[in-house]
Predict the structure.
Amino acid sequence: MHIMEGFLPPVHALGWAAASLPFLAFGLRRIGHTLQAHPEQRMLLGVAAAFAFLLSALKLPSVTGSCSHPTGIGLGALLFGPAAMVPVGFVVLLFQALLLAHGGLTTLGANVFSMAVVGPFVAYGVFCAAASLGCSRSLAVFLAACLGDLATYVTTSAQLAWAFPDAVGGVSASFLKFVGIFGLTQVPIAISEGLLTVLVVNAMARFNAHELRALPVMAMAQRKRA
Amino acid sequence: MKLRTWIIWLAIVVLTVAPFWIASGPPAEPGHEAPAMFGGADERAQQAIGVVAPEYTPWFAPVFEPASGEIASLLFALQAAIGAGVIGFWLGAAVTRERAHKNAAVDSTNAD
């Protein structure tokens, strides 16, 4: 989902940076508050960030004959709320933009918006909806991580379509073209990310049950089951 | 590990490996060569931009580019290693803590 360096017109690049900035500031404050109130959750926050680091480095093959990578953002969004994952995603994307020429500084705002804003907020929303519909914790976690991942790639497609509308079909034709590249490729990878996230949450439920109880989202799913 | 955990791991492996047999090559953009098999989706998008907006030229170049594909894979491996290291540390600490709890419980029942 990385839009390459220089591949967004300056106005778009600035606009997306301006859109992402308030989320980043809010997310930093949220992390500060969380760690102040619950210092014992520092370890789990580290694991959530490490999960995003690990997964976004793995480029997996897909049925379309292209490779793409999962984002690993859903896990942290479910544990600490969507805002907390904005700074985490920002750090991952900055690392890749500076050292790997993957993504870029001018497109950082747009990439942060798709991976670190839309991804976690969709994952969080899906989890809340699934839990309130009475889904089991595993199913809710799977749907949240999987759809959050897909939403990131659909957002990237929309960003590119907006910046580069098709000469004949306009933005919508262009969007279909980019979704055909990013969205289709991402389907099996998003399913894998959903399954992996379920495994990690199960491990956390077993080893860190006490800390998990203090996290609001997990408490909600447990109340639902009780 | 529980049976369900094994099944989930198996599904992840199948999802990752199956494309090598069932994937057909990515379609070529008009006027371009077909993209390489299992190339990055990011590069395909870059090519698609070249088709939709042929007159567009990137206005900014990466500040640092890995000197070769080998260096790039080194840095990607480093990124994955940092993540896996932290997760491994947590998992090891968690398993040890659970074992210590269990032993403590056994000790206290023995003492009674």
